[in-house]
Amino acid sequence: MAGVSESPKSLVALLMIAVGFVLNTIGFAAPYWVSSALGSRYGLWMYCDFLNNCHQWDSNGITFAKFDQVRAFEGLGFVGTLVVLFFTVLYICVPKVAGNKILGILDVLVCLASSGAILIGVVIFGTEHNDLGWAFALSTTGGALFALAGILLIFAMCRK
Fold it and tell me: With a threshold of 0.85, does the pTM exceed it?
């Protein structure tokens, strides 16, 4: 590995991106964004009643109007995390493009934009609910890890 790949900061950023990707993916898909005391729960894509009967749902019957916005921001954030993971692996591990400034800048921009989209979705959702579940926390943590990784990648690029 050449270039930036020798920087411990970039390797830590790659680890943070990988962990953030896993956490955000689980949180994005799990129906545990809100959990009630009676046992029902729901996420962005499914509703499960207290008998554990889960149903895919559309946003028409949801009580707050911003649900489609949350889905859109979280969806954009998820797609962005896939791109960031790919770009970061290219930027750090592939010798032909390792340390390429344009790829590095693009990686940082997509990383910070993905983090922003995830965190905006989390904030919109969190302001509407009280009984937030563990999947909400995983998405929040994943978004924060992407923000920190983007900052770390900036420091790794400035070192060069």
Answer: yes
